[in-house]
Design goal:
The protein is 59% helix and 13% strand. The chain contains five helices and three strands; from the N terminus they run ααβααββα. The protein is globular, with a radius of gyration of 17 Å. The chain starts with 11 loop residues before the first helix and ends with a helix.
């Protein structure tokens, strides 16, 4: 008997998309961006000032998060605001923010 797990109705495309989203989130600055966008939408300048990052670096990270479907943008006049694409992503952002606590507990 093989030691393999059988799954029914696996949507491989969906799993690959989810994996790509998680890989995009797996960066300290991107987690920080997601944490501040968890509660409010913000402009690039507000985000880069809050995190003390270069604006070009902030834009780069925002582009990756938007490209992977994690963030969306809303244009209001001359300003573009970034926010989480879906409220359910807040749970993942909370989990990512707390992962450091889990690692600390394991070391004890």
């Amino acid at each position: 008997m093989e030691n393999s797990i059988q799954f029914e109705n696996i949507d491989v495309v969906r799993l690959e998309k989810t994996s790509a989203m998680l890989k995009a989130m797996a960066h300290p600055m991107r987690i920080a961006i997601l944490k501040i966008l968890e509660t409010e939408k913000m402009k690039v300048t507000e985000i880069h000032q809050r995190l003390d990052l270069e604006q070009s670096t902030t834009s780069h990270h925002l582009g990756i998060l938007k490209d992977k479907g994690i963030l969306k943008s809303e244009r209001k006049g001359k300003n573009t605001y970034y926010l989480l694409r879906n409220d359910s992503l807040k749970h993942i952002v909370d989990c990512l923010g707390n992962c450091g606590d889990c690692a600390d507990e394991e070391e004890e």
